Amino acid sequence: MVAGEVCTRGCRFCAVGTVKTPPELDRNEPSELADAVSKMGLDYAVITVVNRDDLPDGGASHYRNCVIEVARRNPETGVELLCSDLDGNLGALESLLKNLPLRVFAHNVECVPRLDEKVRDPRASFKQSLNILKMAKKVRPELLTKTSLMVGLGESEEEIAEALVMIRESGVDMITIGQYLQPSYKHIPVDRFPEPERFADWDQMARDLGFSAVASGPLVRSSYRAGLLWEEALGGDPVVTRDSTGSAVSHLFSEEQAVSVRGQTS
Ligand code: SF4
Questions:
Q1: CA atoms of 136 and 97, how far apart (whole Å)
Q2: CA 261, 179, 151: angle at the middle one, nearest 5?
Q3: What's the CA-to-centroid distance between 257 and ligand 1, angstroms?
Q4: What is the reported pLDDT for 252?
C-alpha cells in the first residue's frame, strides 16, 4: 500500500486509519517499493493506495511513479494497480494511465449502490467508482479492469444481481466477490454470512454476464490470487478449478470439490 499508512477517507468497513491532513508523500517510496518487490522476487505485485484527497491530483502522479519504478526495476513482474477513485478526477486518471506499464487497473465498488452512504466515505459512490472504471477502459481499451464487491453489508440478492449487471455494462473485465468481515466493534456489523453455495451462484452469474475472470467465495478478497486471475482473464484455466487451498467457490468445480463445498455447508 502506497501514499501513506493513513487515508483521507473514513469508509466504515475499512481498518485503515483516517486523517484529514496526512504527512507529505515520501519521495523515496517508488524506489523503495521497487526494491521490496525485487527482494521478494515477485512474479506479480498488486500495488494499492490510500486516498489522498489533500492533493490536487488525488495522488495520481505518485501512484504512477510507484508503478513505473516497480516495472522498470522488475521487468518480469506483472503489476496491478488497485487504485483510489481520485475523487472522480478523470483528467488525473487519464494522466495516471497514459502508457503506464500495467496488467490490470483495479478499483473497488465495494458494495451495492443503495448502501454507499452507510458503508463508504461520503465522497465515494458506486456511480463515481463505475465512472473511474469506465474511463480507465476508454483511455486504455486494452488494459484489463477489475473490481470487487463485498456481501454481508445488508444488500439483497436482487441488488447483487443488479450491481453485477451495472459493473459488467461498464466494461469491467474481472470481478471478485467476498464476505465482509467487521475489523472492529467500531465498524459496521456483519449483516449475514451467505453459504458458500450462494457465492458459487454469484460466480456463475458473473460468468454468464461475460466477466473474463471471476473469484467468489467467503474468504475471497480483492487481490485474491491476482496473478492467476489475470491469467484466467487472458484465457487461462479458471482459478477456481486449479488445485489449490484457495477459498473461491464455483459451479465449475469438479464433483470432488463440490462434495467438499456441500460438506462445509451441511
Ligand atoms: S478509501 Fe480505501 S483505504 Fe481509505 S478508508 Fe476507504 S477503503 Fe479504506
A1: 7
A2: 115
A3: 35
A4: 87
Under a CB-based contact definition with an 8 Å cutoff, are residues 255 and 242 in contact? no
Residue 128 lies in a domain: yes
With a 6 Å cutoff on the Cβ, whether 6 touches ligand 1 is no
3-state secondary structure 15-28: CCEECCCCCCCCCC
Alpha helices in the chain (DSSP H): 29-40, 60-73, 90-97, 116-119, 126-139, 157-169, 196-209, 226-233, 255-265
- Could you report the per-residue pLDDT of 81-105, keeping only the tens digit for each? 999 999 999 999 999 999 999 999 9
- 1 lies in a domain? no
User: What atom of ligand 1 comes closest to residue 121's alpha carbon?
Assistant: 6
Q: What is the number of structural domains in the chain?
A: 1
Give the residue-averaged pLDDT of 148-161.
98
Each residue of 66-76: pLDDT tens digit? 999 999 999 99
* 12 alpha carbon – ligand 1 mean position (Å): 9
Instruction: Decide: 11 in ligand 1 pocket, CB within 6 A.
Output: yes
Best of 5, 9, 180 to mutate for ligand 1, by most ligand atoms within 8 A of CB? 9
Using most ligand atoms within 8 A of CB, pick from 119, 121, 125 the residue to mutate for ligand 1: 121
Domain hosting 221: range is 6-265
CATH number at residue 129: 3.20.20.70
Cα 155 to Cα 127, 141, 150: the distances in Å are: 17, 31, 9
Give the tens place of pLDDT for each residue, 241-255: 887 667 899 998 655
CB of 52 closer than 6 angstroms to any ligand 1 atom: no
* 8 and 19 Cβ atoms separated by less than 8 Å: yes
* CA torsion through residues 210, 214, 216, 220, sign: negative
